[in-house]
Structures are given as structure tokens and as C-alpha cells.
Automatic annotation (TrEMBL):
This is PDCD1 protein. The chain crosses the membrane at residues 157-181. Keywords: Membrane, Signal, Transmembrane, Transmembrane helix. GO terms for biological process: negative regulation of immune response; positive regulation of T cell apoptotic process. InterPro entries: Ig-like_dom (IPR007110), Ig-like_dom_sf (IPR036179), Ig-like_fold (IPR013783), Ig_sub (IPR003599), Ig_V-set (IPR013106), PDCD1 (IPR042379). Residues 14-133 form the Ig-like domain. Residues 1-19 form the signal peptide. One of its GO terms (cellular component) is external side of plasma membrane.
Length: 256
């Protein structure tokens, strides 16, 4: 039995080695959200890297449909990049990055080694599953709370700004009035509804007025200039009696 087992291993060893040349990792697959980046590695064994010319292709299968080629990189090219894929050559390991994931990127990925001068020109690796999940959306019940919170913050900011502006205006008015008051330009406004001051009753009082009366001589009589006497000034006192109201009887007597 041991001899038979050794014979089977010797016969199938080359075949198994040939099938394990190209290995993709992670073998268990990936599960990532939309917008993220998926990275796979393809490892080529040293037996396949014995100076032969080859290139590496990446394939994608969806729902067990026919595989589609997605990207390619040659042995001597260090890196190649497209809008969707970035391939980096670290021989014997090749890395592929799937950028900006979408749900339609989900599927099975594997790499294929293309030998140009060997009988087995195509060697495929195992499959690795990629699952792209949708980004969790916000619940409708959470949106009003956020909107209410943002609106309340906005109202608080507006009220604070209005209060600050009102304080600045009041301070400016107070400063202006203080400055004008110090200059003496501010007058006390008239007070409304103030009782008018009562004027004392007018009492007629007899007064004595003094005047100057000049008596001149007749101008027709010529007087020599040398013998003209010195003009004299005489003063008279006139007393005005107290005014009495005019009554009808007094008026009649006056007329008589």
C-alpha cells in the first residue's frame, strides 16, 4: 500500500504542481461598501518564472456567466492604471486594485497567466468572490431631528447677532449724547403738561415822570449878540393822577 501511494504521488506530483502555479488571495473573498477599494494579489510560483515570457490577465465572472477580461499587465511593466483598475508588478506577486467600488463590481475574480513559449499557455488561478454592499442611508426619522437641531442653532446665532448689533447701536447713541452734553449743545427738552406759571395781577401805580421844558423868547425881537442873556433852563414837576375807570356818569359830566 505504501509503495502504491508513493507511485501515485510520483505520477500526479507534476500535475499538481502545474495546477498550483497561480494563486489568488484573499481566497475567501471580500465584502466592501460602495466607494471603497478592493485589492487582490496573484502569486506566481518560481517554476513559472524561469525566464519565460508571459503576461497576467485579470478576469471577472458574474452569476457563472462567461468570464470577461478586465485588465492586463506584462512581466516587465512595473505598473499600469486605468480609470477603474490599478495593476502593480512585484514579481512574482501581482496586485490589482479595483477603485471606486459600485454594486455592479460584485462577482468572482481570478487571474490568468499567459505563457508565450510553453505548451500550457493559459494557467488560471482559483476564484475569489467580491461583494459590494450599498452605503447605508439615513433613516427618514433621523432627518427632521438633524434639521431641527440645525435650525435651532441657526436661530440662536441670529438672535445673538441681533443682540450684539443692538448693544453696539445703544452704546454709540449713549456716547454721542454724552459728548454733546459735555459740549453744552444738549438742551433740556420742554416738559409737556407743565402748569404755566401764574403771573401776578397788574396793579396800576401812579408814577412821576420828569421832563425838561425849554422856554424860548420871542424870536421876532432882535437881541444883540453881546447883550443876549444866557438861556436858562427851568424844571417842572408833573404829577399824573391815578387812572380811574370811565363810567357813564363821569363821561356825561365830562361832556358837560
Amino acid at each position: 500500500a505504501l509503495t502504491d501511494l508513493c507511485a501515485i504521488l510520483l505520477c500526479c506530483g507534476p500535475m499538481l504542481t502545474c495546477c498550483r502555479r497561480v494563486i489568488i488571495s484573499p481566497a475567501e473573498g471580500l465584502a466592501l461598501p460602495e466607494g471603497d477599494k478592493a485589492t487582490f494579489h496573484c502569486n506566481i510560483s518560481m517554476e513559472s518564472d524561469s525566464g519565460s515570457e508571459y503576461s497576467l490577465n485579470w478576469y471577472k465572472e458574474t452569476n457563472h456567466s462567461q468570464a470577461q477580461k478586465t485588465a492586463e499587465i506584462s512581466r516587465y511593466k512595473p505598473m499600469t492604471q486605468t480609470e477603474k483598475y490599478r495593476l502593480i508588478n512585484h514579481a512574482p506577486v501581482f496586485k490589482i486594485e479595483i477603485l471606486n467600488l459600485h454594486q455592479n463590481d460584485s462577482g468572482s475574480y481570478y487571474c490568468g497567466l499567459i505563457n508565450f513559449f510553453e505548451p500550457d499557455k493559459v494557467m488560471e488561478s482559483n476564484r475569489s468572490q467580491l461583494i459590494v454592499t450599498a452605503v447605508p442611508q439615513m433613516n427618514a426619522t433621523d432627518e427632521p431631528e438633524m434639521e431641527e437641531g440645525s435650525s435651532s442653532e441657526h436661530i440662536k446665532a441670529m438672535l445673538l447677532g441681533i443682540l450684539l448689533l443692538a448693544g453696539v447701536v445703544v452704546l454709540l447713541i449713549f456716547s454721542y449724547l454724552t459728548f454733546m452734553y459735555r459740549r453744552g449743545d444738549v438742551q433740556e427738552p420742554p416738559r409737556e403738561n407743565m402748569p404755566m406759571e401764574e403771573k401776578p395781577p397788574v396793579v396800576s401805580v401812579s408814577t412821576v415822570d420828569y421832563g425838561v421844558l425849554e422856554f424860548q423868547r420871542d424870536q421876532c425881537t432882535p437881541v444883540p449878540p453881546k447883550t443876549r442873556p444866557v438861556e436858562q433852563t427851568e424844571y417842572a414837576t408833573i404829577i399824573f393822577p391815578e387812572e380811574k375807570p370811565v363810567t357813564p356818569e363821569r363821561s356825561k359830566k365830562h361832556l358837560d
